[in-house]
Amino acid sequence: MSGTRVEVGTEIPPLELDVDPEKMKVMAALLADPNPIHFDTRALAALGMDQRPVNQGPLNMGYLQTMLARWAGGRDRLLTFRVRFQGNVLAGDRVRASGTVTGVAQTDRGRVATCDISLEVLGGSTALTGTAEVLIDEETS
Amino acid sequence: MSDPGPYDDRVGREFPGGSYTLEPWRAWLVADTLLDDPTDDTPHPVLAWMGGVAGMGMTWDDLFAWFDASADDGPMFGEHSTTLHQPLEAGATYVVSGRIVSVQRKVGKRAGAFDIVGYELDLHHGGDLVARCYNSLVFPRRDAA
To probe the interface with A, which of B33, B85, B135 has the most A CB atoms within 10 Å? Predict the structure, then answer.
């Protein structure tokens, strides 16, 4: 977040990344989530689903939070985060986290930007939409 | 179109709760799975929800069973929100509590009947509320009228 003043309409630098099935396996272990749709391609086939594993919701949320934290200047600057799950992200997808400032206000915690945020599968559909509030600098340098 | 849900008496039911220690190694791995910086001293915010779930004192199957459902019914995430009153700290042990906050029966033209169950998870540290997460689960009710 450098070089421009944050105001309504400011676009947050987007974050794009490729969804790696190996990371899903680690996340399944961290979440103690036994659902095979996140790691077992044979189970997916048996269910009649696309054989690409389905990314976990916390990973999809996390991409958006990473985008917000990088823009705002640190993970400690995220105040609120609200999303609606609208679609799946699959292994091998390229996703794009993006956001736009919809409001700026002075609060007892400092200057806060309210943002509309979304996670989209490139060439596909929207996976998450929502809003967030982050602390921002008074004036960016 | 919406009607009162048959599980209204679950609203207010408390989770057993427990504690969650945000181990630095866990913070490292979570950041790495997100392709984010694992060496950042501040744990990734998604750990608020992960810590709440890990410390809620019951399994997903336990929670589903409160609503006469199982993983085989295909429950889905609906909405999520996290409010961070303080940043998370690596190494901190959080007291976790949680509760059911809403249940709503809905009927859609295409989806048929489904219940939307909302629950909250709180992380406390040193007596302070550090984070509150809200999540809704959607339970398909294919056999409901």
Answer: B33
